[in-house]
Amino acid sequence: RGSKVTVRAEAMSARDGLLRRFGWYGLGAVHVTPRVQLVGRYDNWDRDRGAETGISNAFERQVVVGASYLFDASAKLAVNLVRQTFPNVDTIGSGTILLVAFQAGW
């Protein structure tokens, strides 16, 4: 088994003619016990750095906190709370989503 702590970050940029995109994220995870892992992620993504007219090109921010429980080597329960905002466009509302997943393999 690997480390008890995981830290990752990534930045990405793209251009296509006049269209410019940029985003980045940071992720941290810690195994509190061999069966329990806590995670956090901060994500920024700007689909079009030159426009902020609607959901198709707005700057988006997500903050995720979550936990997972490993039942055994083949089954896991994961719970994530996602907060999504579009800080530069007043007409797009923010949202909070609870995601629950059971994963099994055989």
Structural overview:
With 106 residues, the chain is mostly beta strands. Helix content is 0%, strand content 67%. A six-stranded antiparallel beta sheet has the order 1-2-3-4-5-6, with no helix packed on it. Strand 1 and strand 2 form a beta hairpin.
List the topology elements:
Elements: E1 5-16, E2 19-31, E3 36-46, E4 59-72, E5 75-85, E6 95-104
Antiparallel strand pairs: 1-2, 2-3, 3-4, 4-5, 5-6
Assess the beta-strand content as a share of residues: over 45%
Q: Span between N and C termini? A: 20 Å
Strand order of the largest sheet: 1-2-3-4-5-6
Label the overall shape.
elongated
Q: What integer is the average pLDDT?
A: 93
Which sheet architecture does the biggest sheet show? 6 strands, antiparallel
**Helix and strand string, N-terminal first?**
EEEEEE
Radius of gyration: 17 Å
Low-pLDDT runs of 5+ residues are none
Question: What structural class should be given to the helix and strand makeup?
Answer: mainly beta
Q: Count the strands?
A: 6
What are the key terms here?
six-stranded antiparallel beta sheet, single chain, 106 residues, mainly beta, 0% helix
Compact description:
0% of the residues lie in helices and 67% in strands. By secondary structure, it is mostly beta strands. A six-stranded antiparallel sheet has the order 1-2-3-4-5-6, with no helix packed on it.
